[in-house]
Each structure stands twice: as structure tokens, then as C-alpha cells.
Specification:
heterodimer; A: mainly alpha; 2 helices; B: mainly alpha; 3-stranded antiparallel beta sheet; two-stranded antiparallel ribbon; disordered N terminus; disordered C terminus
Chain lengths: 164, 375
């Protein structure tokens, strides 16, 4: 068939045109287009990777921050607790100490009171005894002013001794 | 999945288009002799012949064939057309150049040459010498227009890339082109050519856009049937074939001429088959594009011609057929728009597949096998 036989003229023109287009486009179109496409794609991929990395780092930092916060909180709670305990213990200790001091003071006072009391009592006893002896002396002097009364008394004393 | 759909679409196109091709081919063969004699003596008999009725095959083959005129329309039976430059190489007279208008639409001879209108328009030397016609024909001019368009589009887009830098979002035509370029790179280049795809990307992109833009220009009313011409597809196929041959590696040739792991007797059978298959590859490329585009043009023209065929029978039938014919031809135009891109893609893809086969490196176990054999 006529349609199936290629004409040399058209073949040659096509070849020339195609090769010209190919070489021109290769140098001035495809190279820059493909290279900038490639650059853009790698750039985008890198940016995404960098963003991911930053995101991960942010996450890590946040986690760290949270951990630090938790620790700080725990620490402050601990400190508060310790302070409370310390306060209580100090108060208790002070209470005990004052109590001990007061007790001691009371005891001392009581002892002193006892001593004073005892001294006073002894003094009073001594006074009373002296008075009694003086009275007795006066009485006895008066009663034993006679011989009979002296005898009677001696006899009464002797009877007391016998009875004992 | 996608290739399956693609193939069914192709099958549909073939089914739609092959029937008219063959019927017209037969029709043409039957009438060829009579037609040829009529054409040579057309000058006087022109009016009578036209009045006899509408000659669909003449119209169709006039459109799909190459011509030394760019025929635009007829005014009162007189064709209005652009006369293109004729360049002829004559073995003894050398190169001659003159306008095709000197032939007066093929009715007169000039300088010892005349136009012969068979299925194809041909310039014949009256002294019987085997001349070579390098004329800037309709197809060549159409190609030049497409080349200018292609260069203009691509270079302006490339300039935009250079101007805007790489990290700026594409705009305008650059934006339209970029997905196509990345499609060719990611769907055609990378899967077929592996990591060496960058070496062949310029070829694949040029082939794709060259075919596509010419397919589209061919669809314009009055456009040339450039990619539906076998000389064009043959040229493109030859370029692909030559690139394939020159980039083929040792592994490819080794498998071609000395298939490993095959008994000697089978080798005598296998090597010729492999050699034939090597040459069938570009032929397949050539035929596929040619037949598809030609068929599309013929179908559209046939559908349009039906109006005039029915019109020649009776005016009512002609007008009655207009909506049917228009609807069908609009459908065909859309299909051809699709086919224009698909065929460009298929040509590019098959080129990539063949190149991929040619540059394929030895597989790992093959390599180990060969080394074991050496020791």
C-alpha cells in the first residue's frame, strides 16, 4: 500500500527537526527543569525531615520540662512536709523542755517549801519545848516548894517508872 | 489496573477505527486505477467529476496524505490553498527549488516535473529519473510550527524555573507542564530505567512532547496528519532504536547472542528469534503510532463525509444526518484528544521499556553463576 511506504524527504526533515528539538530542549529546557524539580523535591523532603526532627525535639523537651516540673513539685512537697515535721518536732521539744524546766522548778519550790516548813516547825517545836520547860520549871518550882510535894512527886514518878 | 483500562481503551479505539480503514482501503484499491487516470486528466474533467457526486475517499485521502499545498477551503470549486516550496534532488540536475504554485494545483508540469495524485501526492520527473523530494510539504510545515511552539513553550517554562528559583511554587504554564514532566519521570522513567533514568529523561520528554503536540495540532481542522504518517513514526522509531542499540550493555548482547543456560540446539532456534524480536520493537513503535493516529483521522473524516454522502443521495437525508454525524464526530474528537496523549505516552513508555531492557544489569545470581563458570 502506498500509505505504508515512508517518504525519504519527510523522514529526513523529521529527523533533523526532532534532533534539533532534542538537543535544544535537552540543554535549555529539560536539564534546568529536571534539576530544579529535583532540587525542590529534595528541599521539601529535607524541610519535612527537619520539621519532624524539631517536632520530636520539642516533644522531648516538653517531656523533660514536665519531668523537671514534677520533680520540682515533688521536691517542694517534700520540703514542705519536712518543714512541717520539723516545726512540730521543735514545738514538741520546746514543750517538753519547758515542761521539764517547770517540773523541776515546781519540784525545787516544793522541796524548798518543805525545807522551810520543816525548819519553821522545828523552830516552833523548839520554842514550844522551851516554853513548856519554862512553864514546867515554874510549875514544878511552885509545887515543889514544899518537902511533901517533893516526896509526893518523887513517889508518883517512881510509880510511873514501875508501871512502865 | 490502570494499564488494563488503557488497553481496553486501545482495543476500543482499534475496533472503532480499523473497520473504516479496511473498507476504505478496499474501496480505494478498486477505484485506484480509474481514479489515478482521472486525476492526471483532471483539469478538463474536473467539473463533470465533481458534479457526479461526493468522492469521500478522495477527500479523506487528500486530508490524511501529505501535500505540496496547504489546502484551506474551496470557493466556487476553486481550492484556496497555500503553495509550499518544492525542493527536489535530481540525480543529474541536482537540487532544484521552486514554489508549488508553478504546478497550478497539479494541472500543469513545470521544469520537467509534474504532480501525480494517487493515494499520495507525488512529484514525478518526466524523464523518469528517481528523484528525491525534500519539499517543505504540509507535514513538514506543520512540524516546523509544532517545533516552534514546543521550543517556545518549553524554553519559556525553563526560564521561569531559572528565574523563580527552585523553592517557589510553579505558576501558569509551568504549573500545567510540571505534573506531565513529573509523570513521565516517575511513571515512565523511574520504573523502567531504574537509577539511570536521568540519562534518558531528555529523550523521553522530547519524544513525549513532540508526539503529543503534533497529535494535537493534527486534530485541528485543516491540520496535517503528521504523526499519522509512516515516515514520521519510522523516524521516531529509528531514533529510539539507535539510542537503544548504542546504550545496550554487555549483558543485553550476551543474552541476545548467547542466551545463558540454554542447550546449543535451542540456541540456534532462539538467537534468530531474539534478533527478529530486537527489530520488531521499533517496528511495533512505528506501526502503533501511525495506525492509531491515521485511524483516528480517517474515522473523523469519514463521519463528517457521511453528511455529504447522504446529501448527494438527497438533500433531506443529508440534513437529517447532520446531528448524528456531528454527535459522533464530537465524540470521536474527544476520543482522539485522549488518544493523542495516550499514544504519546505509549510511545514514550515503550521506548523506556526497550531502553530498560537494553541497559538492564546482570541479576545477582546470574553474576554469581557466570563467575562460578569462569573459575
Amino acid at each position: 500500500m502506498d500509505l505504508l511506504t515512508p517518504e525519504l524527504g519527510l523522514f529526513v526533515w523529521t529527523l533533523i527537526a526532532f534532533l534539533a528539538v532534542f538537543f535544544i530542549l535537552r540543554k535549555f529546557a529539560w536539564k534546568p527543569i529536571l534539576s530544579s524539580l529535583h532540587e525542590r523535591e529534595t528541599g521539601i523532603a529535607e524541610s519535612i525531615a527537619a520539621a519532624d526532627r524539631v517536632k520530636k525535639e520539642m516533644g522531648q523537651m516538653q517531656a523533660e520540662n514536665e519531668k523537671l516540673m514534677m520533680e520540682a513539685r515533688a521536691q517542694s512537697a517534700q520540703m514542705l512536709k519536712e518543714a512541717k515535721e520539723m516545726k512540730e518536732s521543735i514545738i514538741n521539744k520546746a514543750k517538753e523542755e519547758t515542761k521539764a524546766v517547770a517540773d523541776k522548778m515546781i519540784a525545787d519550790a516544793q522541796q524548798q517549801i518543805q525545807q522551810q516548813k520543816m525548819a519553821a516547825l522545828t523552830e516552833v517545836k523548839n520554842e514550844i519545848g522551851k516554853l513548856a520547860v519554862e512553864v514546867a520549871e515554874k510549875v514544878i518550882r511552885k509545887e515543889l516548894a514544899t518537902a511533901d510535894s517533893q516526896n509526893g512527886y518523887a513517889q508518883m514518878l517512881a510509880e510511873d517508872i514501875k508501871m512502865n | 489496573m490502570r494499564s488494563g483500562r488503557l488497553f481496553s481503551l486501545l482495543a476500543l479505539t482499534f475496533a472503532l477505527s480499523s473497520a473504516p480503514v479496511f473498507t476504505f482501503a478496499q474501496h480505494e484499491e478498486n477505484h485506484e486505477n480509474a481514479h489515478a487516470t482521472e486525476a492526471t486528466a483532471a483539469h478538463e474533467g474536473n467539473h463533470e467529476e465533481k458534479k457526479e457526486g461526493f468522492n469521500a475517499s478522495e477527500v479523506i485521502f487528500g486530508h490524511i496524505g501529505d501535500s505540496h499545498y496547504w489546502h484551506l477551503f474551496d470557493v466556487n470549486e476553486h481550492p484556496v490553498s497555500l503553495s509550499l516550496p518544492v525542493i527536489i534532488y535530481h540525480p543529474t540536475k541536482g537540487v532544484e527549488m521552486f514554489s508549488a504554485s508553478k504546478f497550478h494545483h497539479g494541472h500543469e508540469s513545470y521544469n520537467g516535473y509534474h504532480i501525480e495524485k494517487g493515494m499520495k501526492e507525488k512529484i514525478v520527473s518526466e524523464d523518469g529519473a528517481a528523484i528525491i523530494d525534500f519539499s517543505i510539504t504540509k507535514n513538514v510545515l506543520s512540524m516546523i510550527i509544532s517545533v516552534v511552539l514546543l521550543l517556545w513553550i518549553m524554553l519559556s517554562v525553563a526560564k521561569k524555573y531559572k528565574k523563580n528559583g527552585t523553592m517557589v511554587a510553579p505558576t501558569g504554564f509551568q504549573n500545567a507542564l510540571e505534573p506531565v514532566v513529573t509523570f513521565i519521570r516517575d511513571e515512565v522513567g523511574k520504573p523502567n530505567l531504574g537509577n539511570k533514568y536521568m540519562r534518558f529523561m531528555p529523550l523521553l520528554l522530547t519524544v513525549f512532547f513532540f508526539i503529543w503536540i503534533n497529535n494535537l495540532l493534527g486534530l485541528l481542522p485543516g491540520g496535517a496528519n503528521f504523526t499519522g504518517n509512516i515516515a514520521v513514526t519510522a523516524c521516531l522509531a529509528v531514533v529510539s532504536f539507535i539510542v537503544m542499540i548504542f546504550s545496550a550493555n554487555k549483558h543485553f548482547w550476551g543474552h541476545l547472542f548467547n542466551p545463558p543456560g540454554v542447550p546449543l540446539g535451542i540456541k540456534f532456534l532462539l538467537v534468530p528469534i531474539e534478533v527478529i524480536s530486537l527489530f520488531i520493537k521499533p517496528i511495533a513503535l512505528m506501526i502503533r503510532l501511525f495506525a492509531n493516529i491515521l485511524a483516528g483521522h480517517i474515522v473523523i473524516l469519514s463521519v463528517i463525509s457521511m453528511i455529504f454522502i447522504f446529501g448527494a443521495l438527497s438533500k433531506v437525508a443529508g440534513w437529517g444526518f447532520v446531528p448524528v454525524s456531528l454527535a459522533f464526530s464530537i465524540f470521536m474528537f474527544f476520543l482522539e484528544l485522549l488518544v493523542a496523549a495516550i499514544q504519546a505516552f505509549i510511545f514514550t513508555n515503550l521506548t523506556a521499556v526497550f531502553l530498560g531492557q537494553a541497559i538492564e544489569e546482570a541479576h545477582h545470581d546470574d553474576h554469581a553463576h557466570a563467575e562460578a563458570g569462569h573459575h
